[in-house]
Every structure is written in structure tokens, then in C-alpha cells.
Write a structure and sequence with these properties.
By secondary structure, the protein is of the alpha/beta class. The protein is 43% helix and 17% strand. The chain has one domain (9-253): Spore Coat Polysaccharide Biosynthesis Protein SpsA, Chain A (Alpha-Beta Complex), CATH 3.90.550. The chain is built from eight helices and nine strands. Helix 1 (24-37) packs parallel to helix 2 and helix 7 (191-202) packs parallel to helix 8 (226-253). It binds guanosine-5'-triphosphate (GTP) and magnesium ion (MG).
Length: 254
């Protein structure tokens, strides 16, 4: 059956997937802010057995609030795997929109209504620091440089008109996640974000960027590491080469 045109597809109900690993101090405030900004959305906390008790705290919050749900996973398996599990949970239910948001306060829930508005004209909305109006607050220069370099590298390798491939605050229409082969996604760290933006754009979906203010976490520790960076450089390089190779072959076949 042919799909209904995008304008006719609903945006509600919305599920916000929040992966957590040792985010005990951050979880309650971020959920409160989310439900203050958008009282009707549902949140799914995907916890990888955090040793600091984030999972137990999430259970307590969920017991008191029907808009909060928890998915427990047994071991720390990376951001990508946590999101894929969260997406599946949402797709098995009737959510029309699935949002990715960090638990550490870097993504302001107050920016989400604007992102959801933009979804009426898009399939994927990226909350972007690197479009006019976007900004970063309290980020060490070194960290911003790394992020900007990752995005420049992704743009050069993949050649799409996306300013922030690494955006971790984003909203998908369910049709996108239904179409992408979630089983095939091997990216574990934050290269997962680049991977999904790239797959979504290549599948012909409309990707729109909305400016956001990104604020460095106040509590807890970043999970960014050398291995996360190496994974992103290697995978993005391989996708870029495959893409250029396909373009070249098409050119010579003409
Ligand atoms: N379930 C789960 N969540 C994770 C894992 N790694 C990171 N997270 C969560 O994913 C979100 C983003 O992770 P951060 O450590 O803040 O990484 P980042 O935002 O890329 O890096 P910073 O900018 O340095 O904070 C946070 O909510 C983390 O708790 C993981 O392996 N499993
Ligand atoms: Mg963070």
C-alpha cells in the first residue's frame, strides 16, 4: 500500500529515548524539565546496568509517573546499542515520533517543541550547534575543536549538506526508523549518530537542522574516549570511500 503523504502523518504520540550510564544526579532534573516543556510526551530511560543506581532511580520515577518507562540492559554496550533497543521498544508501540536525547543536561528539553514543529516539514530533525543561531555553552575549547573536526571530516567524506552529523538531540518520524535496517547498524559509540544521519539522508528522507544551545554537563562524567574517536574516524572513512567509489562507477557507466 502506498504511504500517506508526510503532511497527513501524525507527529504524536512522541517517545523520548534517554540512554543512561551513571547519570544518577542528572536523571530527575532532566525528566522534570522534559515534562514541564512537553507534559504529554513519554520518556524511555535505557539504562545499561549503571553501577551508581541510575536504573533503580528510573524505576522509582516510573512507578510514580505513567509517562516514564524504563528498559534495563545488563551491560554497558555503547550508546548505539542502547538507542537501537529504545527504537525497537518505541516501534513496537504506537509512537509516531521517536526522539534521542542525552540525560546529562547538554540537550535542553525546552528546545524540543521547536524541533517537533520542524518535523512537520521533515523526516528527521537534528538539533544542531553548528547552524546559525546554534551555540555551545561551557564547552572546553579542546572538546569543541574535536567536535568541529569530526563534523568537517564527516562532511568531506560523506558530502551531504548536513552541518552537524554528530547531533545527539534529534527527532525521527517512525517511518524513517521502520525503513532503516536497525539490525545492520554496527556503530557503538557516538559514530552511531553520524551513521544514522547518513543512512537517513541516503534513503532519500528529508533531514532538517534546527539551532540548539548545547550546554556542557554539570554532573557526572563524559563517556567520550579514544576508542570512540577511532571508531568514528575509521567507519566514516570507509563509508566515504564506498560512496565515492559508487559515484565514480556511475560516472563511467554513463
Ligand atoms: N545506556 C547507555 N547509555 C550511554 C552509554 N554511553 C553513554 N551513554 C549515555 O549517552 C548520553 C551521552 O553520553 P556522554 O557521556 O554525555 O557523551 P557525549 O555527550 O558524547 O560526550 P560529552 O559531550 O563529553 O558529554 C548520556 O546520557 C550517557 O549517560 C552506554 O554505553 N549505554
Ligand atoms: Mg554529554
Amino acid at each position: 500500500m502506498a504511504q500517506a503523504p508526510r503532511a497527513a502523518q501524525p507527529i504524536d504520540p512522541v517517545l523520548v529515548v534517554i540512554p543512561t550510564y551513571n547519570e544518577r544526579e542528572n536523571l530527575t532534573p532532566i525528566l522534570e524539565r522534559l515534562h514541564k516543556a512537553l507534559p504529554d510526551v513519554n520518556a524511555l530511560v535505557v539504562d545499561d546496568g549503571s553501577p551508581d543506581g541510575t536504573g533503580e532511580l528510573a524505576d522509582k520515577l516510573a512507578a510514580d509517573n505513567p509517562h516514564i518507562h524504563v528498559l534495563h540492559r545488563t551491560e554497558k554496550a555503547g550508546l548505539g546499542a542502547a538507542y537501537v533497543a529504545g527504537f525497537r521498544w518505541g516501534l513496537e508501540r504506537d509512537y509516531a515520533t521517536i526522539v534521542e536525547m542525552d540525560a546529562d543536561g547538554s540537550h535542553a528539553p525546552e528546545d524540543l517543541p521547536r524541533m517537533l514543529d520542524a518535523l512537520s516539514d521533515a523526516d528527521l530533525v537534528l538539533g544542531s550547534r553548528y547552524v546559525p543561531g546554534g551555540s555551545v555553552v561551557n564547552w572546553p575549547k579542546r572538546r569543541e575543536l574535536l567536535s568541529r573536526a569530526a563534523n568537517l571530516y564527516s562532511r568531506l567524506a560523506l558530502g551531504m549538506k548536513i552541518r552537524e552529523y554528530t547531533a545527539g538531540f534529534r527527532a525521527y518520524r517512525r517511518q524513517v526508523l521502520e525503513k532503516l535496517e536497525l539490525d545492520e547498524i554496527a556503530s557503538r559509540g557516538y559514530c552511531f549518530q553520524i551513521d544514522l544521519a547518513w543512512r537517513t539522508a541516503r534513503a532519500g528522507f528529508d533531514v532538517v537542522e534546527v539551532p540548539i544551545t548545547f550546554t556542557e554537563r554539570e554532573f557526572g562524567e563524559s563517556k567520550m574516549s579514544g576508542s570512540v574517536i577511532r571508531e568514528a574516524m575509521l567507519r566514516v572513512g570507509v563509508w566515504g570511500l564506498q560512496h565515492r567509489w559508487t559515484q565514480l562507477r556511475r560516472l563511467f557507466r554513463r
